[in-house]
Amino acid sequence: MTSAPSTVRPAPAAPRLPSLTGLRWIAALLVFGFHAATMRIIAEPDYKAVIDQMFALGLSGVQFFFVLSGFVLVWSARPGDSRRTFWRRRVAKIYPNHLVLWAAALLVAWWFADPVLPAAALENLLLLQAWDPRPGWFYSINTVSWSLSCEFFFYLCLPLVLPLLRRARPALLWALLVAMPLLILALWPAQQLVPEVSRWWFTQIFPPARSLEFWLGAVAAELMLRGRWRGPGLAGAGIIFVATWVASVQWIRAELWTTLLAVAYLLVITAAANADVRGLRSPWRSRPLIWLGEVSFAFYLVHVLVMISVLRWTGDWGTGFGGWRGPVVVLGFLVVNLVLAGLLHRYVETPLMRRLAPRRPAVPRQRTAPEAAVPEAAVPEAAVPEAAGAGSRVGQAGERSTYADSR
Question: What PANTHER family does the entry give (predicted)?
């Protein structure tokens, strides 16, 4: 890559983006709704039809979190951070929650006398399961952690690629931004090159394939840091997203809507970031939404395990609840998972992140060319979920989900 003039290099510390933290909760809620629908908790046909329609594409929330992860990690990257420091910070952020839920999933498997394959448990513990194409193995133990396996691959690659992004000329960055959605679309015909049994894994799980969404967000963040981003405002991006969502639910095939929604999510993310940078009005940075966004990682990790475990324990797994009981049970699961997520965030995630992550050196804050100063807020973090297991029976529902972040 050719070097860009030094005047376009990003500032060492960019303004923080609380709206992206709030948006994380909306994406997590989409994934929760998708899993609640696929678990058939609601038996009443009319009620079930509503939730099925509302959350039909909820599994695409994982795209949001992968795109958001790339955007936030490039946005918050500092020149003084070494690769080792970056990787240590990422492990400190994600691994404590993962370890707790990994142990909890094994405990649940023991309680229900589910067989657990030691190799699958080890793969899940080390977050290597997304590389295993064997059916079910990538959904083993705590099923949603497949997305963390992908994230670890992204984390490994980013410090190696970021210097190239920093030096790339804007024209090349725009070319990459156009190429990523086209490559996402190309995954669907490319899956014909792998055995049929592995095609879902290839398009939906395989870390290099899913990294296209991560790099889409990363390139957009680099353009925005340089003041080169051109996109709609928050209202316009919202309208584009809703129109894309409705059209995708009604008429568009999966191989196309995955590409269209990746672009729509990117437009929402960049518009929300731009609103924060410029101090414009945003509905996504209210205090309650920021709290919900902060606990969304923990919420993502607990929600499938909790719902399936409770339904199996009560004998209602696969049968559903008739009448008004179905929606009430779904709302009850939402509240219970939020409480557990809040506890996990406060007593595991936050204190261990502070203890294990290296401190960042103080760097004078500078403004990038088009930016205005904005109030400090929590650095956003990316995230979402999935379900269906192999190493144990726990988590035999749902299809996909994920979470990522940056602090």
Answer: ACETYLTRANSFERASE, ACYL_TRANSF_3 DOMAIN-CONTAINING PROTEIN
Domain contains 37: yes
Residue 166 CA neighbour count, 13 Å, CB half: 16
Q: Give whole-number Cα distances, 261 to 9, 34, 229, 254, in Å.
A: 30, 16, 19, 10
Domain residues for the domain of 156 are: 18-356
Tens-place pLDDT, residues 309-366: 999 999 888 888 988 999 999 999 999 999 999 999 999 999 999 998 887 655 444 4
**Is position 314 within any domain?**
yes
The reported pTM is 0.85
209-226: per-residue pLDDT in tens? 999 999 999 999 999 999
- Tell me whether residue 311 is in a domain: yes
Q: Is 64 in contact with 27 (CB distance < 8 Å)?
A: yes
Instruction: Compute CA distances 232 → 21, 23, 111, 176, 257, whole Å.
Output: 20, 17, 51, 19, 20
Task: Show the tokens assigned to 319.
Answer: 């049968």
- Provide CB contacts within 8 A for 4, sequence distance 6+: 166, 167, 168, 169, 170
Q: Distance (Å, rounded) from C-alpha 302 to C-alpha 66?
A: 19
Question: If 0-12 CB within 10 Å is exposed, 13-18 middle and 19+ buried, where does residue 355 land?
Answer: exposed
Within-domain flag for 395: no
